[in-house]
Amino acid sequence: MKKPNLSESWEKTLKEVAKYxxxxxxxxxxxxxxxxxxxxxFSAVVxxxxxxxxxxxxxxxxxxxxxxxxxIIAIQLNVSQSSAEVVPTQFEPDSSSIRIxxxxxxxxxxxxxxxxxxxxxxxxxxxxxxxTPTRTPGEALALRQLRRxxxxxxxxxxxxxxxxxxxxxxxxxxxxxxxxxxxTRHPIPFALCFIAVVFSAGLYFVTTFLPILMAPxxxxxxxxxxxxxxLSYQFVCPYKSPQAWVIYRLSCKVMHPFLNxxxxxxxxxxxxxxxxxxxxxxxxxxxxxxxxVVRQFDKSAFVxxxxxxxxLKVYELRALQWTVNILRDSPAMIPHLHNLLETIxxxxxxxxxxxxxxxxxxxxxxxxxxxxxxxxxxxLRYSRPQYMWWVPAPSIRxxxxxxxxxxxxxxxxxxxxxxxxxxxxxxxxxxxxxDSMEKADLKxxxxxxxxIPFSVVDALWAHENAAVRKQSLRLLRxxxxxxxxxxxxxxxxxxxxxxxxxxxxxxxxxxxxxxSELMISKRGQTFLRFVDKEITLRGLxxxxxxxxxxxxxxxxEWKLVMRRVQQVGGLPSNYFQHIASEDPLAAxxxxxxxxxxxxx
Length: 600
Hints:
The chain crosses the membrane at residues 34-51, 98-120, 154-176, 188-213. By secondary structure, the protein is mainly α. It has helices at 6-53, 61-76, 81-84, 95-128, 137-153, 156-185, 187-213, 242-255, 262-271, 273-280, 286-299, 314-327, 334-341, 346-353, 357-362, 367-375, 377-382, 404-419, 429-439, 442-446, 454-461, 466-471, 476-483, 494-509, 517-520, 522-538, 548-569, 577-580, 589-599. 67% of the residues lie in helices and 0% in strands.
């Protein structure tokens, strides 16, 4: 790429700075314009009420006329002088009329004041954006910075944020005046309006306090040394208003000294962890508030080294998941989506973006698989053997990254996949890795029997370090437990998991680059014998009419790897049941039994 010259750099820099300023001012102007429209409409409504209400503060001429008429009538009726003389009393407005007029006139004044200062703010912003000729680009940049710093110094942003609060206070005063009026007139309209006003005001105050009360808590990445707690996809409360920000800052400032009291500190830590976190380190604005939530999974994910291709950007993965789901039907967007997905490992794209957890559980996912899945689910499905179509996926609610079980499954898989190739017996790395697999307890949250990605054990059982290979045989106990199931679960869904394990195990034992520890160790050979016996007992390799060709090939491959294990380990000819039963008359026994069952 050609290096830009100095003038081009200044031009580009000034353009970006101007764009930032213009966006900031544009948002303020839009808020002010909305405020001016509402203030104008509201002032017109309040004016209509005050035109009527101010008359309650002075003597009504009609009442004076009635008094004099009563006096004339009394004289004409020859009533005694004492009783006929009607002396008009001095007019005194009732207290209700005084209160109502106070509320409504204050409301009108506040509304007009907010509109007045809204106009002033637009004038200030116009002057802030004035394009002043300067001698040099540096001077132009300095002028913009001076104006920006001056806006912050003189609190213009806070002033603009306070204008809606002024208008909301005017609306509240108007409501109070309406209720006071109805209280003196009739209880039924008063009750109805009181309920409506309380509901509106209550909703207003709830939305004002919710952002601080529901502040997301800090997620501690020490979870990787425990593996028993859940991580959650935390949402931010969208009710972000100027008054909510005032409450947030005020709450953090007022409550911070109380954290010095152990009892209150412990109470907030246990009952309102999110509030406690923000009192200790408040955000500078709403944007930093949101970005802190987005970045929290990356901030201290120390188990992933800097050289790892993947960091735990859960929110970015969720954004990719949504984006791909919305835009993948647009042919013009496919190349762009493909480029985006290339920035993350294929296994992450397949599981976290496409929710194809069953694929990443049993297969090594490549970039071509991701490209195939991007073209459509059927494309990926038809590229796999038919008996792999029915492998169950985890019972995780969609979207998976919104729920703790989905995040935990993703974190566990990526942690194990990242650690397996560099596992070592030093510093108990391999022991910690296996302990985490035993502690994770993913079976209950996923509804699966097999929860460890086979690519992990494929790397461990064929590791270059013999001590690591030997230690990794501890996982055989977990896989034996995964095979256990009642007889009615032999076919679906557990039977399909078992069949997928057989496929992955066959592929592992066929590796030509390295020899698996399962083939050369007594413990591994015993496990393979157990699997071979389970295959026969459960009839896993009895093909159906739709996958007969695929399963015939799998049967052949399984027998070949069993012979290889037998030769490498020097095992007797009858050690594995499939090989022991193979003779000229019984070589295809499983297939004959299956064909007979299909005919019947």
